[in-house]
Amino acid sequence: MIAIIDYGVGNLFSLQSSLGRVGAQAVVSGDAQALRDADKLILPGVGAFGDARERLALTGLDEVICREASRGKAILGICLGMQLLFERSFEYGEHSGLGLIPGEVVDMAPRLQQGLKVPHIGWNALRMKRPEHPLFADVREGECMYFVHSFYADRCAEDTLATAEYGIELTAAVARENVMGCQFHPEKSGEAGLRLLRAFCGMEG
Amino acid sequence: MITKRIIPCLDVRDGRVVKGVNFLGLRDVSSPVALASYYSECGADELVFYDITASAEGRKLFTGILREVASTIFIPLTVGGGISSLDDFERVLTCGADKVSVNSGAIAHPELIGQAARRYGNQCVVLSVDAKRVNGRYHVFARGGREDTGMDALEWIRRGIDSGAGEIVLNSIDTDGVKRGFDLPMLADVCAFADVPVIASGGAGCAQDFVTLFREVPRVDAGLAASIFHFGEVSIADLKDTLAGADVNIRRVRHE
């Protein structure tokens, strides 16, 4: 059983449907025991980092996530959910993240060349840094995924699985042992996204 | 780098897809779910659904269909038509829409753009504008292109972006349904200042029109069309081959 962590941000309908499509049993839950009982966790998220971080703290789910991560449970953060895995973010002030992956989340706008639009929204090709990672068992270099974001994870080269080129290299996917994340939305990335979700669902542990 | 997007647009009334020519004389085409699946498999980068139903019953039918589409197709979905309040945003987002397109509702209640952007984020708010040349200026038309508001389209778009619209769909009434290509001058005028994605709509008649669009107005992010896709005049797979052959950066779908 896979648990999609419900902490009151975002619409989880598409994510749950996409997991159903790849044949995974998924439950949407904000209940600590349900998350402990699940084989794998998915941390979704849309909106601002600060709000989401606060909700995780208020619900106490941040501690549950960190404990399950330390026990070796596979966790996949998606979009803002991936950003929350890092140590800190500079979106509207400085906020501490879950600290499961070293690195920080920064505004892309000042780093982009002139004329490039923010948010980075649309389909962009993956550049594999670690094509052998099990998440990419059935995803190849150059396949496009759907991105919507204005901030990106930086100083995390060691754990970066793939990037997307937007004048600069944007972190597209990361993994540190059992803790994984993708900046793009696999549940909105067509067949390629479903293949990635299927790979996550089929991982050992 | 971000690819140019190809977006089929489905007008839905009472649960069926229709497409108007110059907004008049609607023709029934097909089932929204079947069409959406077909487009997704052919490589459509996004789908836009406009609910052109007037009745409450038809609206209920529409949200049911939206839910079915959203659980079947895993690419971004934009929904518009009859959106005039935050409740309307909530209603379609709950059914699986990723973005919500506002048009007449934003003309009547301009504050809706900012309210929705604050609640759901700019990326969720699409400002759709029907524009037409009147006395050498672009005017905004409301109510499906039937009513001249007298507002200057460029000013309206600028104001929409300032208020939080994360994307602009620019539909030229002058070229819509004519099938002789997109309205390049109008698009260039909007792209000259818009710092959010601009989606071109109205006028596509063949694959070459998309090549011309992305070449002549490189800041356009996407091309939207309905009838040429629905009637099979242009298949999305062939269109993408043509665009790739013309060195336009687009997403290819892997088939095995």
Secondary structure topology:
The complex is a heterodimer of chains A (205) and B (256).
Chain A: E1 2-5, H1 13-21, E2 26-29, H2 32-37, E3 40-43, H3 49-59, H4 61-70, E4 74-78, H5 80-83, E5 86-89, E6 95-96, E7 101-107, E8 120-125, E9 127-128, E10 144-149, E11 151-154, E12 160-166, E13 168-176, E14 179-182, H6 190-201
Chain B: E1 5-13, E2 16-21, E3 24-30, H1 32-42, E4 47-51, H2 56-70, E5 77-80, H3 86-94, E6 99-102, H4 104-108, H5 111-120, E7 125-134, E8 137-142, E9 147-152, H6 153-163, E10 167-172, H7 184-191, E11 198-201, H8 207-216, E12 222-225, H9 227-230, H10 236-245
Parallel strand pairs in B: 1-4, 1-12, 4-5, 5-6, 6-7, 7-10, 10-11, 11-12
Antiparallel strand pairs in B: 1-2, 2-3, 7-8, 8-9
Report the radius of gyration of chain B as a whole number of Å. Answer: 17 Å
State the distance separating the first and last CA atoms of chain B: 25 Å
Largest sheet of chain A, order of strands side by side? 2-1-3-4-14-13-12-9
Q: Percent range for helical residues of chain B? A: 25-40%
For the record, the CATH architecture of chain B stands as Alpha-Beta Barrel
| Oligomer designation | heterodimer
Estimated helix fraction of chain A = 25-40%
What number of domains of chain B? 1
Give me the number of helical elements of chain B. 10
Overall pLDDT of chain A: 95
* CATH secondary-structure class of chain A: Alpha Beta
Instruction: Name the average pLDDT of chain B.
Output: 91
Distance between the termini of chain A: 12 Å
Biggest beta sheet summary of chain B: 8 strands, parallel, barrel
What is the radius of gyration of chain A computed over CA atoms, rounded to a whole number of angstroms? 16 Å
Strand residue content of chain A: 25-35%
**What is the CATH level 1 assignment of chain B?**
Alpha Beta
Q: How does the helix and strand content of chain B classify structurally?
A: alpha/beta
- Please name the CATH topology of chain B: TIM Barrel
Which structural class is indicated by helix and strand composition of chain A? alpha/beta
